[in-house]
Write a structure and sequence with these properties.
By secondary structure, the chain is α/β, with parallel strands linked by helices. Helices cover about 40% and strands about 20% of the residues. The C terminus is likely disordered.
């Protein structure tokens, strides 16, 4: 049979195979299989696999073999120096291209003027041609298609057209052609002066380019594709040298011959000695790149409390961090209490390139919705945006941590005008890492895994190069 881990109740057979709780009153999200022995006792079988088994990129001091998970490639950012053209040089080169295009345009305009002037000089035979065709058509209709009569009509139309043109239109056409020719000559002269002007500007621009600095060295952040970490760090046994081990063994043998002053002290799971504490092993996340620079290597279950004023980059930072965790370590759920599944949430995901097979989103509007809709033992990282919107105080947040004991939490809160986290400061005291986002810069104000005051440029990966302004108006070279 299948039994609920929380209340030990039997899961009804009519439940689906993927049911995780025994009844509507029990909110347990995980269960274990139990086998009933002939004598009536119930033997517990191996429970469902722990959430930590699916966590990737973990430094485990006790595990020496390579973790068994698919090797993935990740994108990191590095600073690179490169030689680029100076802004002044690019500006003059842009003007130079504009001058050449204008010369080409005005040259075509001059050629058009020349063609129109040629047509005027050769005359306009359209009137005579029209009367000729009209005479042929009329004669053909009257003679019912007789070719000789049609030919006579054509000759008659030609004569009438020539006579009408000579008597009435020749002088008017001559005056009109003179007027058009004068306008064309003026336009041609204007176009030619413009060509001469731009050729002069080209000479000045080329002379200026020969004297100015062409290149300069600039640094920029570029993406680098690398393999995700696959090997754990050396175990604690390799940290200590053989000499230290020998010293410890010798000291232990000497202590056996002496009176044990601590013989009446019994240790348990709530009381341990300093030697036991030193020899304890802890798993941690193998952060790399700029995430290692700001956070170090946190434990697999941690709490990061982030706060800032509206529009300063809190959500953008969390989207980037959630994508990094999803691509390199485990499943992430982003609880959107402010935007739901709205367009703004989708636009933020697209602009930060945060899409991943391991990143999920939940539309929860209250503390109760989180416990009801986000299953236990499913997500390695839980992002809550935001505590203020969902009205989650320190007591409710501690309850959530107990409800999801194997999950790390990233919480977002609003800041007051003086830059402090809004609401109770207990959240900061309980958190492992606190981050303040101010004007696009994330700064750690507390970190149990590394020194504080480490900074992170939130928008550095999203910046684009602005295009030069369009040129026009004054064509001179600055």
């Amino acid at each position: 049979m299948r039994a609920c881990l929380q209340c030990s109740g039997e899961i009804p057979k009519d439940k689906r195979a993927d049911s995780k709780f025994c009844s509507s009153s029990c909110k347990a999200r995980y269960w274990e299989d139990r086998k009933t022995e002939p004598n009536g006792t119930v033997e517990k079988t191996k429970p469902e696999s722990s959430l930590s088994n699916g966590l990737r990129g973990v430094v485990d001091p006790q595990k020496k073999e390579e973790p068994q998970f698919p090797q993935k490639t990740v994108v990191d950012w590095i600073t690179k120096e490169e030689q680029v053209e100076t802004e002044s040089y690019k500006s003059v080169k842009k003007q130079l291209d504009f001058f050449k295009s204008e010369i080409k345009r005005f040259t075509q305009a001059v050629q058009g003027c020349d063609q129109n002037l040629k047509n005027i000089r050769e005359g306009n035979p359209l009137l005579i041609t029209g009367t000729t065709l009209t005479g042929g058509i009329i004669a053909s209709n009257k003679s019912e298609g007789d070719p000789w009569v049609t030919a006579g009509g054509v000759v008659l139309g030609l004569g009438l057209g020539a006579a009408f043109d000579a008597l009435f239109l020749k002088e008017a056409r001559k005056l009109e052609n003179e007027k058009i020719r004068a306008q064309l000559e003026k336009q041609k002269d204007d176009f030619s002066r413009a060509i001469l002007h731009y050729r002069t500007q080209i000479q000045l621009a080329e002379a200026s380019m020969r004297t100015m600095q062409k290149f300069e060295v600039k640094t920029r952040r570029v993406p680098v594709i690398r393999k995700a970490p696959s090997l754990p760090l050396p175990s604690i046994d390799t940290i200590f040298s053989d000499a230290n081990k020998q010293t410890e063994r010798t000291q232990s043998n000497q202590n056996k011959s002496e009176i044990d002053a601590n013989a009446d002290i019994e240790t348990n799971d709530k009381l341990i000695s300093s030697r036991q504490l030193r020899e304890m092993n802890y798993k941690c996340l193998d952060f790399a790149g700029r995430w290692l620079e700001i956070f170090g290597q946190p434990a697999t279950v941690f709490h990061l409390a982030l706060h800032g004023k509206p529009g300063e980059g809190k959500s953008t930072f969390c989207f980037q961090f959630a994508h990094y965790l999803a691509e390199n370590f485990g499943r992430v759920v982003y609880i959107s209490g402010e935007e739901g599944f709205g367009k703004t949430l989708r636009d933020k995901m697209i602009s930060t390139h945060a899409e991943s097979d391991y990143l999920y989103f939940a539309d929860c509007s209250s503390f109760e919705h989180i416990k009801e809709w986000v299953e236990q033992n499913k997500f390695h990282f839980i992002v809550i945006d935001s505590l203020d919107t969902l009205k989650i105080d320190p007591a409710k947040l501690r309850e959530l941590k107990s409800w999801y004991p194997q999950s790390a939490f990233i919480t977002i809160s609003q800041s007051t005008k003086d830059g402090k986290m809004r609401g109770s400061q207990e959240i900061i005291h309980d958190a492992d890492i606190t981050v303040r986002v101010d004007n696009g810069t994330a700064t750690t104000t507390k970190n149990r895994f590394k020194q504080r005051e480490m900074t992170f440029d939130v928008f550095s990966a999203l910046k684009v190069v602005k295009t030069p302004p369009k040129f026009g108006g004054n064509m001179g070279v600055v």
